[in-house]
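This week, work through this protein record:
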Amino acid sequence: MSYPEQVITVIERLRSHGVWFQLSENAAPVTSCLDAANNRNRLGVKGIPLTDELKSLVGTVDSLPSDHIIMIHCRANHSFDEGLLASHFGGRFQPMNPERLEKELGSAYGLVNPFSGFDVPQITQVFDRLLLCRRQPPYTLMTNAGHRRWGVEFFVQDLIQTLPGASLGKLVREEERAPKAQKIGILTGNSPESGMLLWDRINQVVREDPRVMLLGDISLPRVSVESVPEMGLSMELEVRAREVEKVVVEGVRALCEGGASLVALACNTTQFFAQQCTEVCNDYGATFVSMVDCLERDLVKRDVRSFDLFGIGSVSNLEKWSAFSQLGAKFHISVPSPKTSIKINDLTVKVKKGAVGETERQQLRQLISQASVTDMVVVALTELSILLDSERKKHLPKKPFIDTLSLLAEELAGRHISQYLEIPATEHALKPTPILQSLPA
């Protein structure tokens, strides 16, 4: 593939100085930072966060000789501050006019980049200190490659270390607000598939949220899964509570020690130990995300005042061992009849044995449609969640229902997504385009 002369010049400059880079073709010619960010190609995705686009401005300072060229750089979502610039340079910064920009640097608005500093070492280049803050993968910046159709990706710290006369300074008023990246910890084992389904749904929520610029796999959360077979003891929580509590607490502690900042149980029954989980998480500066709390918020949001609760006996009977009993003070909860409870338990055993076919799905649809007495059914049993997922949204029950595992996934995904809400949504489907690291030797 042949490249424009300006692009080849940038490639040779970076390559000769050992600066890692990736060259890519924009989806369309660009004329500004915002335009560029929306059309860059990184990791096969169209568009990058504006914060990952480099803003560059070239000019002079009135207290220095007029032939002393200054080039300043910051993140494109930030704005240069005149007062800070004056303080840094000891005089007023004046952007270079287009004629001089073209004559002396062969550049134009929207094409200024720091790479000309390799050939013109007398240029003073100052990079705003916030450029070194690691925000989100892949931790790179992009700018133009001397051409409106081509962009280049690089690590700014490598560039600063290599460019003659480059330095850091405080050029913008903004402060770094990048939140601490969340690591989700999932405790599962009753059944293991429930943890797998929770993880899958978290990823699905992130991928489908229109508020997030999806950057491929690097947009998904870090997740640790602790699958503990002894979680299966919770099927008889009433008689095995002491053993189950030990398993849950140790599992949560293992997740926290592994660096999890958000911890959740992919299980409705063991929500009973939410207080113990919270205490362990507090010891590590982590947060326990309760399935029951997620359900309460969702019911209030929907203005639901009564519902049927489908779960195993220790959950749906709303007695001593049910974490959901605390909702009884705010909502009217209808529990399954003895006959319905038997059907739910039988269906649960089938799913645990791997039976997730049309027969089981039909049984679930009938339970939700015919065995409930209110206008809303809350499914608080992960085996039923697995059955609902197997429906693939094609033959879901007609009666409204809430799946607690899905609510938990939405909450966990939402906390992860909150890191990216400052990034505008954009199109992320793009045909593969040529990407080049360096010219062939």
Notes: The CA atoms of residues 369 and 399 lie 6 Å apart. The chain has two domains: 5-177, 183-419. Residues 422-441 have pLDDT under 50 and may be disordered. The chain is about 35% helix and 20% strand.
